[in-house]
Amino acid sequence: MKVDVSTPKTRRVTLADVAAASGVSKTAVSLILNNRPDSRISEQTAARVRQTANDLGYRPNLAAQSLRFGKTRTLGFISEQVTVTRFASGMITGILRAAKQHDHTVLMAETFGEEPELRQAIAQMSHREVDGLILGFMDSRLRELPGLESEVPVVLVNGHDTQPRTCIMPDEFAAGSTVAHRLQQAAITRVALIGTHRRATLHPESYPSITRRFAGLTQALAAEGIGITGQWELEDWNPSDGFTATRAMLAGNQPPQALICANDRVAMGAYQALAEHGLRPGIDMPVISFDDEDIAAYLRPALTTVRLPYEQMGEKAVELLLGGQLTADEHLVPMPLIERDSLPARR
Amino acid sequence: MKVDVSTPKTRRVTLADVAAASGVSKTAVSLILNNRPDSRISEQTAARVRQTANDLGYRPNLAAQSLRFGKTRTLGFISEQVTVTRFASGMITGILRAAKQHDHTVLMAETFGEEPELRQAIAQMSHREVDGLILGFMDSRLRELPGLESEVPVVLVNGHDTQPRTCIMPDEFAAGSTVAHRLQQAAITRVALIGTHRRATLHPESYPSITRRFAGLTQALAAEGIGITGQWELEDWNPSDGFTATRAMLAGNQPPQALICANDRVAMGAYQALAEHGLRPGIDMPVISFDDEDIAAYLRPALTTVRLPYEQMGEKAVELLLGGQLTADEHLVPMPLIERDSLPARR
DNA sequence: CTGAAAGCGCTTACAG
DNA sequence: CTGAAAGCGCTTACAG
């Protein structure tokens, strides 16, 4: 079916058209449509002009407005990779929602963690004169950000620059107490930690999120009087790592009453190791975790976990960018507990 | 730390600045920088102008160019929901990559499947005069698309309109032969189908992808001489559905040699049911599936599956949009077999 | 071969 | 109270 569906551009209705159609000047139309209070045009004319504008389907040309104002009502979002986990997609959702509320649109770019790509994306967005730039990172490693000398306001999400910047982070430290408290409510007194993170342990300042997650956890567990039977260091946080570590833990002679997993993928591996060992996850061995990725809901029993609040972080970024004065503060966003079925009820 | 990091806008370098700095007219600078061949300016002057432009860090103002040309070098991508599965995020990656290659940027909006949101997003993007619009859908249900009377070229990804449109679909029918052929290579002669889709069975024309997936499958299985021991109809395609169906299948008396699962989530549920039944997925019971979501790689053994080529579909959309004449054709993108560990080797 | 001028669609300071 | 004019930064048809 060779139907040509590329429609030829029909000329758009302009301010001049509205002016002509309603028999007043462009100035008047502009004043009326923008509700300028200073110059009082008769309400009758105003109503008539508004009506014609509406009838004609007039929409101001944004390119013209941008040229006039030097503002584009556009925000840029640059992320490392959108396909991996909920990380970027969650931020996108939050950013889009908040941007829409403020009548802004958002431009996207992906860097795959490569510095030249980042630099190029920043240049491109500055070039398009976005009103603000949001940089999203998958892990919160401290890094030196290139190409940020431009004059556009910047907010970092889930990351830090070596320069002072506005940034938004999940409140990992508080998440630790959330978990410890929930465990206490289930009357659990001995837990195993599957696992810590090798590189983060070696360079804590480079991995603020991971470091805070475990600092919060150990401090809160102690405060709740919950003992740690052991903690397994992992190279990475994939199911296979969780599987191996949990297997090693089960081979030991210090059985815990529950497992705290570093993240949901680790928990998935832990489930597999428990099953292999004849232990029903969540029943014979309660499990709690961090992140709330998609798989958390798919697991059987569904996994109770503390959510990384990507959407809220994205929203917050927009609010800060559009809300006026930007200061080089770190903003913490709370991590909610997502209660599912892998933990005994509170008592 | 209250450092103000909102930098005041320093005036951008304009064409006029370059002209003044190099002692020629704006016309000349424009001609030179755009490599207009017609008017031959001395190569010496040209070089000097290019040099000053570079030194000054001149970048043409896009708003001005847009105003002049009525083109924005911007594409719009509207999707239902970006947080769910790889669906939208994969398309985004493909779209961004292709757009970058053509020196375009992309604007995003999310509709959550709501018609008013869709209508609004389309209006907003037309208003911003995107050069093309990509509409991405999560399931390929036939639907009536509102607000598309605008003059902007449109491509549908993973969906159809009641109007003739350019659209891009995965080649589900061919995927059926891919699966059947792979099974034949593993010397499998009897399979169970977990499961079909109730609504798709009732309204095949509304669910082209699902319908094609199973049509391709049954036809190819027959061609390869592989028998179907049974097929289980599912209300939905989540792990719990796969679990229930597989359990029912296992209770029957027609044991298959392999399972074909409707998608990876169904396969995840099948794994759980198999394990419960003391059967090792992939070893005692080979499994093959469709989609290649994240979980496919996490499962143990990792799942062999036929990938939904979202990235390629996104790329293709951009190519079509920017490649000139748009015709109301359906473009089929091949679905590659992702070989992992849930199927015996080929013989 | 090169420059002055007009115009894309808007807004606003300035006259009338 | 209302309109003509200038200008945002670019490109191109038109004179010189």
The quaternary structure here is homodimer
Question: Could you give me the name of the CATH homologous superfamily of the largest domain in chain A?
Answer: Response regulator
Question: Any idea how many domains of chain A?
Answer: 3
Largest interface: A-B, 68 and 68 residues
CATH class categorisation of the largest domain in chain A: Alpha Beta
Widest β-sheet, arrangement of strands of chain A: 2-1-3-5-7-13
Looking at the overall shape, the CATH architecture of the largest domain in chain A is 3-Layer(aba) Sandwich
- Alpha-carbon Rg of chain A, integer: 27 Å
Biggest sheet features of chain A = 6 strands, parallel
Principal-axes geometry of chain A comes out as elongated
pLDDT < 50 stretches of chain A: none
What is the tally of helical segments of chain A?
Answer: 13
Structural class of chain A: alpha/beta
Overall residue-averaged pLDDT value of chain A: 89
Would you tell me which CATH topology of the largest domain in chain A applies? Rossmann fold
Question: What level of helicity do the residues of chain A show?
Answer: 40-55%
Total beta-strand segments of chain A: 14
Strand content of chain A: 15-25%
How far the N terminus sits from the C terminus of chain A, by CA atoms, comes to 66 Å
SSE run of chain A? HHHHEHEHEEEEEHEHHEHEHEHEHEE
